Batch of 3 targets.
Target 1
Amino acid sequence: MAKTNPALGIIGGGQLGSLLASAAKKLNIHTVVLTDDNQAPAKHFCNEIITADYSDRAKVREFVNKVDVVTFEFENIPVNILEGIAQFKPVFPKPAINKIVQNRLLEKQFVNSLNIQTTLFEPIKNKLDLSSLKHFSPAILKTNTLGYDGKGQYVLNNQKDFDDLNISFDQDYILEKKIDLDKEISVIVTRYQDGTIISYEPIENVHKDQILNQSSIPANISKNLFEKAQDQAKIIAEKLDYVGTMCVEYFIDKKNNLLVNEIAPRVHNSGHLTINAFNISQFENHVRAVCNLEILPIKKVKNAKMLNILGLDIEKYRDKKFSNNEYFFDYLKKEPKEKRKMGHLTTLVD
Ligand code: ADP
Ligand code: MG
């Protein structure tokens, strides 16, 4: 008898959860999304949705009972909730990984422990710690946990910015030296349960106001950096005993040094172009890995660039006519808030 596909539970119902659910549908995999957002766009893409606070035990149990394996679209779910779920159903990637990558300090220490370079950094607990590190300037102060899309970050370009910064220090911070960037790239890898790693080629990323604006392949980098970035991402996935798709974001400085910026233990915005540019997308590979399906080789179909569409800009695109090398994705979010990721456009190029 043919093996039946497992039902996949996805925690989080934003654009990443939606795109995961779409990829699962293509593979005939039933998806159940658990989200605390009653306007979660994933409702348009999954088979079933449960809306509840993540601490609502009865609802979480209902979710767990409906699925065979669980994954998540974002790394900031409390680890104890993921660990609770893991007592009943496999959770991939393993919840313990989140303890490291949820925390910028532990994440950088982990990366450095693998002999992989990051920016210079120091933990900051209070104003005194910060004042003693003015020589780091120009620098960026970031909350240790819960930041995304540049949230919780303060750029300190000179010593006066250090003096003027007026924040309460009610949480832990990390101070990073600001890099004089030549470029930013990311590498997306999928690691399967048998340890096989599939790596996409490096993607070149441009950020605006600390939010990803554009991604493209091929990245305009040397063969040496291309290989080094892929090798480092593979080492990180192996050392984390990772299962699923993950992303390593890198800085390249003006002296061509490759530095790990951060690890995303999930599918990643810079990999949206893999939906159209490859035979198998980062989302499909994630679903295949966590559901233990067949491993297929990836093949690039075309080069591509992807543009993020934020806030009210989405309205222009909803009315637009596209050529046949353009692929518009509307996340169907209710409110087009400023800087909110509302959709993206991928253009295939030669
Ligand atoms: P988030 O978790 O919000 O993605 P990141 O640490 O990746 O936070 O920062 C977002 C963007 O801000 C980066 O992709 C980069 O463009 C810029 N940035 C962050 N840290 C530095 C740094 N130390 N030097 C230079 N640019 C930085
Ligand atoms: Mg980032």
Target 2
Amino acid sequence: MENCIFCKIANKEIPSNLVYEDEYTVAFNDLNPQAPVHILVIPKAHYASLNETDDKETLAALLNAVKEVTKKLGITDYRTVINTGKAAGQEVFHIHLHILSGRPLNWPPG
Ligand code: AMP
Ligand code: ZN
């Protein structure tokens, strides 16, 4: 989608620190990391949020990519987060899944 920063990253129109790519997804380092490991996994297809798609192939591919990324990095303890909607903290309206690791992660998150 035009003017979507994550579409541009997926299409490699703007640079990012890619850590993983497959047919459906790319994963890259978050620009403003909240933990020593902070990776974003996005679908190559544009969906504004989890509310905007029921494409099961893409949804399964996102979780599969989490497994591939964590396996690749040797991470066994991590948190995955999907912020959906402004009130939940979503700032970029192209679905993305956060992978956070490398420090103690409190629960409940607050
Ligand atoms: P959210 O608040 O869930 O929408 O998360 C958006 C995330 O995207 C934030 O953690 C930002 O730091 C990150 N972000 C925004 N622009 C970029 C970019 N160009 N490259 C990497 N991460 C980005
Ligand atoms: Zn997009």
Target 3
Amino acid sequence: MKTYHFKIPPKTTALLKKIGKLADERGEAAYAVGGFVRDLFLRHPGVDIDITVEGDGVTFAEKLARLTGSEVEAFTRFGTSIVIVPGFGKVDVATARTESYQSPGALPAVKKSGIMQDLYRRDFTINSMALSLSPGYFLKLLDPFEGLEDLKKGRIRALHAKSFMDDPTRIFRAVRFEQRFQERIEEKTQRWLLEAVRGNYIQRVSGERLRNELRLIFQEPHPERAVWRLDELGVLPHIHSSLGVSASAKMALPHIAGAIGFFKKNRMVLEEEKMVWFQALLLKMDEKGAAALSKRLMLSRAEQKIVSQSSKAAPALPRQLAGKDIPASRMYRLLCSLRPEVQCFLMAAAAPDLRKKLAVYFVKLQKIKPWIRGGDLQTLGIPPGFRYSFILLEALNGQLDGKFKTRQQALDWVKNSFAS
Ligand code: ATP
């Protein structure tokens, strides 16, 4: 076992030593594992630490929390706990375990084990390394599957042929890591992955888990790369038959990050930012398909609304806003009721000319405050009734299209046209 020296902040080293010593005192052994170890070798140490304990992870986490004055949350089904260490971050503590899959795609049955079996249950070699934290072996590397070699060579390699069938979410994880680290899924692993895709194993995964994997992909710095790759590997139609990357989506994808940046810069809030990316996969989908997809992925209400609005607006909008001189009022009518996430995607998907017009619309016109309000109509003695909404809309249209230059002009128009 080789000992490694990493550039780690002193407070992280101190915490790792504390964890190793506590385990030793309890007659247990603690290891740093998974993404934390991988990222140390990549010289991108994350703030969160993954710890696996050969022993009782839940009790260990409680003791660690007491020792460091931290809060602890436990998820006992997998023997895992999260310790929130003040001034530091999250420490995930798990009991070393083996996993067995009763049926593909379902959650596994788990049993306590030693660190080696625990590493064997993991997804890829680069995520199956452990660093001992025991006082006598501090930062000695356990790397039974040669993950470090794969990391150096830029390879994503699964541990066994059935890995993607046991847990098809690993298909999405493989693509996510491949694109994040600009690595390559190793040849044999890709064959296993494709077998699981073509064998329709994705269908067995719950909507919640699939949605979570997509969410993680859309949170990466370059989701467009992973989307291309999922398309290339034929993954998307296995989530839903009409999910995919159409020719229009290929045009939109490179502009999505820019459109999101534009919205943020102009303080237009995208509560469901990931859904801007998701819409790129929906361009082949009709409304019925969109509803079925929402159900399959167990989307939240807000997410469903975005999918439904986008599946209606995205195919029609370029036609509706074609031409040189589109009145601002027409843009307003077509766009104002859409969620910002849909507006943002439409901007990314638009041809350059229309994109410029949409930019002006979103920043200037959409924020215009109507000059005429209900109170003005009352003051003018117009009896309340269904006519109000018509008058207010027409007044706003006139304001947007420049028919009225001032509030007074708009008011005069209302008075002359509607007040008796
Ligand atoms: P990220 O940087 O995206 O958080 P991570 O590798 O830390 O990546 P987590 O989802 O936090 O990913 O998982 C921690 C570790 O747990 C992984 O490194 C891997 O060893 C293991 N793991 C997570 N999900 C799976 C899975 N579906 N199958 C097998 N092992 C998994």
